[in-house]
Specification:
single chain; Topoisomerase I, Chain A, domain 4; alpha+beta; 15% strand; 2 domains; 187 residues; Gyrase A, domain 2; two-stranded antiparallel ribbon
Length: 187
């Protein structure tokens, strides 16, 4: 039985780590006024009839703190990349000069910063809900084991361990949110 309890805890921790890594991925996509090539992750370009991520059809680089440059490997991909960026509605208009595409990130207004912080808080709340759902599933699993003969003390200890794990991961979510909010609100 103790191996099963350890297994439940390990699986719950693994799932919680995945929830945190998803949060980190989503927070990177929220721009904080600085140019970051990962802002374009998730944008697909029509490449000869099949959708491809931008970073697989072009070189994306940071020119300065507020400018990204996208240089396609094939010159005829300029228009599809430009259309894909416009369609993605990331709030940036691409500038096509016939050789490469430049993305100039406008400075963020106070209102826009607050909107971005709210969006971050929403992502953080989704992560917290995911962590709590993982906790609920793990505790239900422990209760099923208790019905099948696990002692009440062992079940309570396992539930306490799962709760401690949950508290630790929720604190991690809060830490990520605080760091991102500080990054967004700093001018």
């Amino acid at each position: 039985m103790s191996e099963e309890l350890a297994s439940i805890s390990v699986v719950a921790e693994d799932h919680m780590k995945k929830a945190i890594s998803h949060l980190e991925t989503e927070l990177v996509k929220i721009r904080a006024g600085k140019a970051n090539p990962q802002m374009l992750d998730g944008i697909s370009v029509d490449y000869y009839g099949s959708p491809m991520p931008i970073n697989q059809v072009a070189n994306i680089s940071v020119m300065d703190a507020r400018t990204l440059s996208i240089q396609p490997w094939e010159k005829n991909m300029l228009q599809p990349i430009e259309r894909a960026i416009i369609a993605a509605n990331i709030g940036i208009n691409p500038q096509n000069d016939g050789v490469l595409i430049r993305l100039f990130l406008p400075p963020l207004t106070e209102e826009r910063r607050k909107e971005l912080v709210k969006r971050c808080q929403g992502e953080g709340e989704q992560s917290k809900v995911a962590v709590r759902n993982i906790r609920r599933d793990a505790i239900e699993h422990v209760k099923r084991l208790q019905k099948n003969g696990l002692s009440e003390d062992a079940a309570k200890d396992a539930e306490a361990g799962i709760q401690e794990l949950t508290d630790r991961f929720i604190a991690t979510v809060e830490k990520h949110l605080a760091a991102k909010e500080k990054e967004i609100m700093s001018i």
